[in-house]
């Protein structure tokens, strides 16, 4: 065995444990989900092959389409907001707190990230309740209370608000690291040329973070399609179908109706949508000179 073959064998042995874990916990479950999506399976009995029946049912199911619409709307609201807020806060920290208070501010903003989604959802449910802190402030300034979690038009936006609050700290750290990689000489040269802070932000910071922004948007999109804990804790999918999401639908179908085959078909639909959105984002960033 040559030295290159020994080196390759050593590298393969090094990655083998991770490869086995990925196979057992990612690749095989995905393959099983695809198989189950073409079958009738209720856990108690062996899977029964039914072809495309689950997908025919899925196309006609208003519950699934309502959950898909809510998930897409949730994604289009939360991803731009959490990306924009985290980028702006990271830029402010880099400019105004490059040394002083930088670490303490980042740590305080990161606290919601490490808190469990169930805890955050419970906290925001209390804040947005009829007699919660938010309505108390509205009443204090002379406005009427709002049924944040009880209205069809406000419930989903309330979940979006809580999700953005939880995720901003995570993406803030990513953006801040990216800003630190931008050469300070670019900002110094721009200052000499008379460019203000806002102009520097749009001319230097935003273009310099194109690859980081692509990462943040992609992660945000995947997380948004996986939203479950916050919705389950804050609204349970109500009122009506106003906050039901794809993952919540998969959960209800699989573990309340025990229709594993149909739940697998819905999961496959979600997988296809996430892949499609990721590809569209990649094409969009490539066309703008972003990620390669």
Mind summarizing the main beta sheet?
A: 2 strands, antiparallel
Terminal Cα separation, in Å? Answer: 38 Å
Q: Using the CA coordinates, give the radius of gyration.
A: 23 Å
Which overall shape is indicated by the principal axes computed on the Cα atoms? globular
- Share of helix, binned: over 70%
- Specify the structural class: mainly alpha
Question: What average pLDDT do the residues reach?
Answer: 90
Strand order of the largest sheet: 1-2
Total beta-strand segments = 2
Give the SSE order as H and E letters: HEEHHHHHHHHHHHH
Total DSSP helices: 13
Q: List segments where confidence is low: pLDDT < 50 over at least 5 consecutive residues.
A: none
Beta-strand fraction estimate: under 5%
């Amino acid at each position: 065995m040559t030295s290159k073959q020994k080196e390759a064998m050593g590298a393969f042995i090094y990655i083998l444990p991770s490869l086995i874990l990925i196979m057992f916990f990612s690749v095989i479950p995905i393959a099983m989900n695809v198989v189950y999506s073409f079958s009738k399976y209720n856990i108690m009995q062996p899977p029964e092959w039914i072809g495309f029946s689950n997908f025919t049912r899925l196309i006609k199911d208003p519950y699934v389409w309502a959950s898909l619409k809510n998930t897409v709307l949730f994604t289009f609201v939360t991803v731009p907001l959490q990306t924009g807020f985290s980028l702006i806060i990271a830029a402010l920290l880099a400019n105004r707190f490059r040394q002083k208070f930088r670490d303490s501010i980042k740590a305080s903003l990161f606290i919601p990230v490490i808190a469990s989604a169930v805890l955050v959802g419970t906290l925001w449910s209390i804040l947005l309740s009829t007699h919660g802190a938010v309505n108390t402030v509205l009443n204090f300034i002379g406005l009427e209370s709002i049924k944040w979690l009880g209205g069809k038009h406000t419930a989903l936006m309330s979940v979006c608000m809580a999700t953005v609050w939880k995720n901003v700290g995570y993406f803030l750290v990513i953006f801040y690291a990216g800003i630190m990689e931008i050469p300070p000489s670019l900002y110094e040269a721009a200052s000499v040329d008379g460019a203000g802070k806002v102009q520097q932000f749009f001319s230097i910071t935003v273009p310099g973070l194109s690859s980081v922004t692509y990462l943040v948007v992609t992660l945000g999109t995947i997380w948004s399609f996986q939203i479950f804990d916050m919705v389950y804790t804050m609204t349970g999918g109500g009122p009506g179908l106003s906050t039901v999401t794809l993952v919540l639908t998969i959960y209800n179908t699989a573990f309340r109706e025990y229709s594993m085959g149909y739940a697998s078909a819905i999961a496959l639909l979600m997988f296809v949508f996430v892949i499609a959105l990721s590809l569209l984002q990649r094409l969009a960033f490539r066309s703008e000179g972003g990620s390669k």
